[in-house]
Amino acid sequence: MIKAVIFDLDGVIVSTDHYHYRAWKALADQETIYFDEEINNRLRGVSRMESLEIILERANKSYTEDEKVALATHKNNIYVELLDQLSAADILPHAVELIDALKLKGIKIAIGSSSKNAKKILKQVGLYDTFDAIADGTDVTRSKPHPDVFLVAAEKLQIDKTNCAVVEDAEAGIVAAKNAEMLAIAIGAATLSDLADAKVEDLLEIVPIVK
Ligand code: B16
Ligand code: MG
Q: Within a 10 A sphere around the Cβ of 87, how many other Cβ atoms?
C-alpha cells in the first residue's frame, strides 16, 4: 500500500535542465572541453562533483582536487544566478494537479532530490511550502543511485520505505528507488530503464498507480 510519493525535483516537478546545460556549457567552453546535449543527459540526477567528472572525461589535461572544487563552484555560481529567472512557468505539466490529487487521497508527498539548490528552486517556483518533507543533496553524502536521499525523505515523513513510491526522470534515480526498496515510477528519460516498476508519459497517470 502506497502512503507517500517521493518526487525527484529536476525533470519531474521543475524543468531546470536548460539552466544546468547553460552553466556546464559556459564552464566547458572556458576550459575548452567538448560538451553537448548528449553528455548533458548523462548528468541527470547525478551529483555536482560526479557531473564534473563526466565532463572532465573529455578534457585534455588533468585537474587537481582543489581545481575541481573551484570548477564546480564556478559552475554552481553561474547556475544559481540563472535560477533567479525560474518561476511557476517552469513547473512541469500536471505536477500541481497530481500533487492536489494525491493530497485529496491523504497520500503524503515529499521531495527527494540530488540537488543542493532544491530549496531555492522550490521557493522560486512557489512550491516550497507544498511538500510534507524535503530531502536533498544537503542531507546526504552519497547521491543517487545510492538510496540515501529517498530513505531520508521517508524518515522525515515517518512512513515506512515499503509504503513509498518514487517518481524519477533519471536512470540513477530509478536504481536509487529500487535500492531503497520503494516502488519506482519512471517518466521521461527514465522510462528507458528496465528496473522501473511503472512507466508514465504524463504525471496524472500516477494517480491510479498509487491508489
Ligand atoms: P546541484 P534531481 C539533480 O537534481 C540534477 O538532475 C542533476 O543534473 C544535478 O547535477 C544534481 O541535481 C545536483 O544539483 O548542483 O544543484 O546540487 O534530478 O535529483 O532533483
Ligand atoms: Mg531528475
A: 10
